[in-house]
Amino acid sequence: MLLFLFTLLTIIAFQLIQLLYVVSSAVAGTLLGAKVEHCRVGMGPTLLRFQINDCEWSLGLLPTGASTKFANEEELLDETMFLTEDSPVKPFQALPWYSQALMILSGPCSSILAGLLLLWSATLFDGSHVVIAPVDGNFVTPSAVPNLGWEKSKADWQSNSELLQQTFVTFFIRVVTFQSLDGWGGFFGAMITCAAMLMDSPSGWFSCFGVICLGTGLLNLLPLPVLNGGYLLFLFLKLITRSELETFIERANNIGIVFILLVCARLIYADALWVYAQLFQ
């Protein structure tokens, strides 16, 4: 029961990080002269939908992913808004390249900052630090990361950096290169692992959850289609080539969507196998 409660609290905390992502993007866009059309936290079927001023907010069933949608030129014209050079509200594409870049970067950077603050908080505790294969045998159970445990010494930036490399980075490489995920869990496995760590070592929770937030923000900055880093790459390509590249971007995004769907399928499969193993083995 306690594990379930801590898992729920960890998922809520992750949702708050996702909310920070969309709010950061929305605030940046508003300050830079864009109109925010829709802010969404979560994926899948919509659980909650409401309106704040002219912006629609929604909450998805699955606690993964977040997005902020800005109005384009056609949408603004459909609202009979008269656009001029001096208009306070402009379509996203009409903003200067540096304004677009700041809007693209604001969301992931908020996740990265939150992750760094959590990892810094872990260094304030005298209790323990999280490691792979601890020498004194304090393993976390259940764990979506093989051989994850903790040792009775204070966490520092070096130990947190090693944890990021040995968990999030290693798992991501395994997923995208289609290596074996035996013993690894997906999103829900990670949330349950954080909850299990909280039961054994509160300071370890800050390290584990901080790694997830930091890794998510860094992952979103990779120059891959659909991710923020991909949009940033396309923006600079447009700037360099001085052309729209719409056909190229559309094809790249289609390929990116297929790739993301394959990655999501692997994550769901890994989660299902891991949960099954915890329940029946």
Automatic annotation (TrEMBL):
Q: Which GO terms describe its biological process?
A: proteolysis
Compartmental location:
Membrane
What membrane topology is annotated for this entry?
A: Multi-pass membrane protein
Q: Which UniProt keywords apply?
A: Hydrolase, Membrane, Metalloprotease, Protease, Transmembrane, Transmembrane helix, Zinc
Q: What is this protein called?
A: Zinc metallopeptidase RseP
Q: What is its main location?
A: membrane
Q: Which residues cross the membrane?
A: 97-120, 181-198, 204-234, 255-277
Tell me where in this chain the Peptidase M50 domain is found. 27-262
Q: Which organism is it from?
A: Gimesia panareensis
> Which PANTHER family does the protein's record reference?
MEMBRANE METALLOPROTEASE ARASP2, CHLOROPLASTIC-RELATED (PTHR42837:SF2), REGULATOR OF SIGMA-E PROTEASE RSEP (PTHR42837)
Q: Which family does it belong to?
A: Belongs to the peptidase M50B family.
Please list the GO terms describing molecular function. Answer: metalloendopeptidase activity
Q: Name one GO cellular component term.
A: membrane
Obligatory cofactor(s):
Zn(2+)
